[in-house]
Design a protein that fits this description.
heterodimer, A: 145 residues, mainly alpha, B: 63 residues, 73% helix, flat
Chain lengths: 145, 63
């Protein structure tokens, strides 16, 4: 509140601020889901074009390098706990997880070092996107800039 | 790239990984463009430098 404002105008601003906060809280989950599905889109929806583009490029670069190196994309059901963790990391990359089978038609080949690296690239793509989703949540809730 | 997939050398794989992750960390952790660039560059140098340092430390025990 600056010096020219009276206490009455300050009080009249409170409901508007509260409504804006409620609106933020209402839209935050939708923006988070959008950010998860399409890396970088959550930042774009919040007006952070540069950050959104960089996040998309980083996630796409990691995921596509991993797919073309024939890294393993873990299925949802696995007997191995590490396989389940791998699935959780992979699924965080959003639609790149869905298109993995379209790009990696011959399947994974982790017998070569490149394929093994590819598995890490795909997992890292998901984790980077998870960080981006958390950043989007913070921005949409007003906790980050 | 052949039908066997992308053939990444160890060093190329490391550089690509460091580049993508550094860019993402820089843009998510800093608020200003200058800060992002500085953080990403520093992170990239640390990724590569640490890996090369560990590689040289392991060199005497390679065989």
């Amino acid at each position: 509140m600056n010096d020219t404002q009276t206490p009455e105008t300050h009080l009249s601003e409170q409901p508007a601020a509260s409504a804006a906060l409620n609106k933020r809280h209402f839209f935050a989950p939708f923006i988070a889901v959008t950010a998860w599905l399409v890396p970088g889109l959550g930042h774009v929806l919040l007006g952070r074009w540069g950050r959104g583009l960089l996040v998309f490029c980083a996630v796409a670069g990691l995921a596509l390098t991993g797919f073309y190196a024939r890294g393993q994309v873990f299925p949802p059901h696995s007997d191995d706990p590490f396989g389940t963790l791998g699935f959780l990391a992979d699924v965080c990359s959003g639609f790149f997880f869905v298109i993995a089978h379209l790009i990696e038609k011959t399947g994974p080949d982790v017998s070569r070092a490149a394929g093994d690296y590819g598995t890490r690239f795909v997992a890292a793509a998901g984790l980077v996107n998870l960080l981006a989703v958390l950043d989007v949540c913070g921005i949409s809730l007003g906790r980050r800039n | 790239m052949s039908s066997g997939g992308l053939h990444l050398s160890h060093f190329a794989g490391m550089v690509a990984f460091a580049l993508f992750v550094s860019v993402a960390l820089g843009c998510l952790s800093q608020q200003t463009p200058k800060g992002r660039l500085k953080y990403a560059a520093w992170s990239f140098v640390l990724f590569i430098g640490t890996a090369l340092a560990i590689a040289w430390l392991m060199y005497p025990f390679a065989r």
